[in-house]
Design a protein that fits this description.
With about 190 residues, this protein is α+β, with helices and mostly antiparallel strands. It has helices spanning about 20-30, 55-70, 80-90, 150-155, 170-180, and strands at about 5-10, 35-40, 45-50, 75-80, 105-110, 130-135, 135-140, 165-170. A hairpin with a 2-residue loop joins β6 and β7 (about 135-140).
Length: about 190
């Protein structure tokens, strides 16, 4: 049985560093034996099918292959459609009422634990807010991520120590749910 996954690559093709052309990423993933490989945007999302491994082993395999091919380490998170849909459905903020630039999801390689975030004076950052979910952090930033003081604070290494973490805006979150959705069998 094959499963459709999304691979989220952290920090590629941003600010002139860690260049990974999407055509080369697709070819690399096909060389690894994955099917139906498609990429979304230039910022490190790929959708693929695989009948072997689990999310962690697939992420480790892709991370090692990217490092070997391109010469730099890249954190990779792999998640299946059911998980991506559950994350979108569980959003604690009114996604349908917000502009996509106001809502972001940070995906973590493992549960970050509430204790990492207890020191944050949440009232000091209002109207910006964050909530934790299943291996994710939802961030509401009404003025966008680039102007968010809370996002800047949450980007400090102590909040992600020992984890791979990568953030996507709500448009990308929703699009990955669509791209990984089961397709009708072609006849």
């Amino acid at each position: 049985m094959t499963t459709t996954y999304a691979a989220l690559l952290r920090g590629i093709n941003v600010g002139g560093g860690k260049k990974v052309p999407m055509a080369e990423l697709r070819a690399l993933m096909e060389e690894l034996g994955h099917g139906g490989v498609r990429t979304h945007l230039q910022s490190g999302q790929a959708v693929f099918t695989s009948g072997r491994g689990d999310e962690e082993s697939l992420a480790a395999e892709l991370s090692a292959a990217v490092e070997k091919r391109f010469g730099f380490a890249v954190g990779v998170i792999v998640r299946d459609h059911a998980y991506l849909k559950a994350v979108a459905d569980a959003c604690p903020f009114p996604a349908a009422d917000l502009e996509p630039r106001q809502l972001h999801v940070t995906y973590f390689s493992a549960p970050p634990g509430e204790e990492r975030f207890t020191e944050i004076d949440r009232d000091a950052f209002l109207p910006e807010e964050f909530r934790l979910g299943d291996r994710v952090l939802y961030l509401y930033a009404p003025d966008g991520l680039g102007r968010s003081k809370l996002a800047e604070h949450l980007a400090r290494p102590r909040f992600t120590k020992g984890l791979t973490a990568t953030t996507r805006n709500w448009n990308t979150v929703a699009r990955l749910v669509e791209l990984t959705a089961p397709r009708p069998q072609e006849g």
